[in-house]
Design a protein that fits this description.
The protein is an alpha+beta fold. The protein folds into two domains: 5-63, Orthogonal Bundle (434 Repressor (Amino-terminal Domain)); 74-247, Endonuclease Chain A (Endonuclease, Chain A, 2-Layer Sandwich). The chain has 13 helices and eight strands. The chain has helices at residues 5-14, 18-25, 29-36, 43-53, 57-60, 66-75, 89-97, 111-114, 117-128, 143-151, 157-168, 170-173, 225-239, and strands spanning 77-81, 102-106, 132-138, 178-183, 189-194, 197-202, 214-218, 241-242. It has an eight-stranded mixed β-sheet, sandwiched between helices. The longest helix has 15 residues, at 225-239. The N and C termini lie far apart (53 Å).
Length: 250
Amino acid sequence: MAVNERLRAAILRSGRSLDQLAHDLGVDPKTIERWISGRIPYKRHQYALGDLLSADPAYLWPTGSPAEASGLAMAEVLAVYPIRSMAGNDLWRDLFASADSEIDVLVYAGFWLSEDPGIRKVLAKKASSGVRLRFLFGDTGGAQVSQRGADEGIGAAIAAKIENTIHNYREVIKLPGVEVRLHDTVLYNSIYQADQEMLVNTHLYGLPGHMTPLLRLHRLPEGEFFAGYRESFERVWAGAKPLDRSQEVA
């Protein structure tokens, strides 16, 4: 890869350090170093960095086109369900069963999945075989779970569902390689990932998850659709707190 001299010059002109830019972009400084070395950032990072540097992204990275980026994003979409409930539990069971290395779940509760013994069996089998499992549930003591309950008109029901979900998964959570954290973030999307496949349940104000759209995505090397949701999961994970071990078997 050739060094991106245009980017390096723009950074020098800005007078900002790599640490400052990395903080504003929400990335590691080493990531910016890789961009300077010639790696091409995702489009959203190109535009964000261009804005910070008061530079045209097309000048900093004179490749590709909006049409190409849009076409690549659409290539990552395997299916769209206008309402999540149109997709049966088999879709999630097959997703988790396909994992060879990692399974990640970001929800507030996801109680409906935890009730399925087939789902629990697959998750336990995968954890026992060495697949890393990470669960992100809503913090029942946090402001966002309370607000979501108010938005949906169900009050404390979401907090109760979270507690029941953790109880349902108690045998899975005990297994090696399974981590659980609690988050207090606005849940824009529920995310279920298994290696290169992902289900994204988008959320609409005032509606429960089963009444909102579902996307099925497949990761492509230069794609940004899958990567955007993946980065979102990692940001929530980084700011979440570990589940109190005493709660796991409550």
